[in-house]
From TrEMBL:
Catalyses which reaction(s): aldehydo-D-ribose 5-phosphate = D-ribulose 5-phosphate
Annotated Gene Ontology cellular component terms: cytosol
Entry protein name: Ribose-5-phosphate isomerase A
Organism: Vagococcus humatus
CDD domains: RPI_A
Job description of the protein: Catalyzes the reversible conversion of ribose-5-phosphate to ribulose 5-phosphate.
Listed HAMAP family: Rib_5P_isom_A
Catalytic-site annotation from UniProt: 103
Keyword Isomerase: yes
Recorded family membership: Belongs to the ribose 5-phosphate isomerase family.
Metabolic or biological pathway: Carbohydrate degradation; pentose phosphate pathway; D-ribose 5-phosphate from D-ribulose 5-phosphate (non-oxidative stage): step 1/1
InterPro entries tied to this protein: NagB/RpiA_transferase-like, Ribose5P_isomerase_typA_subgr, Ribose5P_isomerase_type_A
Gene behind the chain: rpiA
Length: 222
């Protein structure tokens, strides 16, 4: 079993019947969604899922997981999602899979958030992984200029065919190549104020539990 599968299965143990569960996005969250689907079929687990991307929505539908949108539920009991980096302070960078906007909305309305990662994602300080920023296409060149002037080393995300990547909301992603983020709160506050920025991948003070996959087994950190 690979480490992503290990933590996906471990996290799914926290899911109980009757819960509204936020279903994250990415190659690690994929295994958690598969395990929830298996438990529903084989163990009679009964939940409602709230998905964080069209990719996860398609997967959940194939597994027969009943779904509601974030606007159809009063709250989410538990969200389980992957992350690109997690610092010692339990802050994270997310958005490598371009789903950060829905992921942040679902996490915001969740009573509890669990992140699942393999050990390579645990870092001292955030920033080696480029910080994704979701922006409205209109005016995005101006934001590129602004980020360059600020020394934030922006790169507009493109796919392998050099097409601009579009999010589920038809926005663009600008990745900031920062190497090290000394003050994540300060950067998050600044990004929050920039017109045209829809959301950014700094997920600060949002997670309760992190399940890390090591070769000798999963470890739950709180
Ligand atoms: C998608 C995300 C993912 O959770 C993050 O990129 C981790 O993905 P993976 O588990 O595939 O490494 O934030 O927007």
């Amino acid at each position: 079993m690979n480490l992503k599968e290990m933590v996906g299965i471990e996290a799914a143990k926290h899911v109980k019947s009757g819960m509204v569960v936020g279903l994250g996005t990415g190659s690690t969250a994929y295994y958690m969604v598969e395990e929830i689907g298996r438990r529903m079929k084989e163990e009679g687990l009964d939940i409602v899922g709230v998905t964080t991307s069209s990719a996860t929505e398609n997967q959940a539908k194939e597994l027969g997981i009943p779904l509601k949108s974030i606007d159809e539920v009063s709250h989410v009991d538990l969200t389980i999602d992957g992350a690109d980096e997690i610092s010692q302070a339990f802050n994270g960078i997310k958005g490598g899979g371009a789903a950060l906007l829905f992921e942040k909305i679902v996490a915001t309305y969740s009573k509890k958030v669990i992140w699942i990662v393999d050990q390579s994602k645990m870092v001292e300080d955030l920033g080696k992984f480029p910080l994704p920023v979701e922006v409205i296409p209109y005016g995005s060149d101006q934001l590129m200029r602004l980020f360059t002037e600020k020394g934030l080393h922006p790169v507009l995300r493109q796919d392998e065919q050099k097409n601009i990547v579009k999010t589920d909301s038809q926005n663009y992603i600008i990745d900031l190549h920062l190497e090290q983020i000394k003050d994540p709160d300060e950067l998050a506050n600044w990004l929050d104020k920039q017109v045209g920025v829809v959301e950014h991948g700094l997920f600060l003070h949002m997670v309760d539990t992190v399940i890390v996959g090591y070769e000798d087994g999963p470890k739950t950190l709180q």
